[in-house]
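hey m, so remember when u said the tokens were messed up on ur end? i reran from scratch. heres the input so u can diff it against urs
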Amino acid sequence: MRRGSYRDRAVVVRTYDFGEADRIVVLLTREHGLVRTVAKGVRRGKSRFGSRLQPFVALDVHLYRGKNLATVAEADTVAYYGAGIIEDYDRYTAASAVLETAERLAGVEAAAGDPYLYESVTETFARMQSTRHPSLVLDAFCLQAMRHAGWAPGLFDCAQCGARGPHHAFHPGIGGAACVRCRPSKSAEVPEETLHLMWLLAHSHWPAARQIAEADGGAQLVAAAHRLTVAHLQWHVETTITSVQVMDQR
């Protein structure tokens, strides 16, 4: 391998056309974090690997380092997750939100050398392919990624004073659940079952989470958990996750 080049596993998080035949491809890699690359000539019909540089594909990529952009020299498919996702609107929008969230988190956290985000994204895609509850899978990804980053919401004890829960208020500004003494104005009033569902998702207790989602009244709890998860995420990354807004317009 030439000096200044390296191989890594990656998923495509975003692309846009560049020049007459090239494409800018933003990759979330396993070992090098978020990498901006250029794939030269991939918009021509004879490109060797242009069709592989798409969302929901795990890739083995060979990259040459550059001053501003790395160059994609090779891209081989390791796993394809599009089946079951791209033909289903709810799964597709939720999976797209996973990619945008991963990009935002990689920009906030120093992800280079930490394989967590890449591995979490590919595991989430595998689960998304057949799930009946795309928003639960998305929320689990977000909660677990925030937990890994060190700013997951408190879901039982008061995030401000530590008073024993369960509590019935939530505000991302204080870090999650809030007791009656600490709750800020405009806190969300939530049943404790909502926070319990979020806790199950954050700790990968899928059978129990699905049981709640499919019980009477479960849809309301799932929707409430989703709103709180997104509010906490966007508070900490300090930006709107656009694809989540698209997903929630359904």
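this time it looks ok to me. The chain has a mean pLDDT of 92. if urs says something different then somethings off w ur setup not the seq
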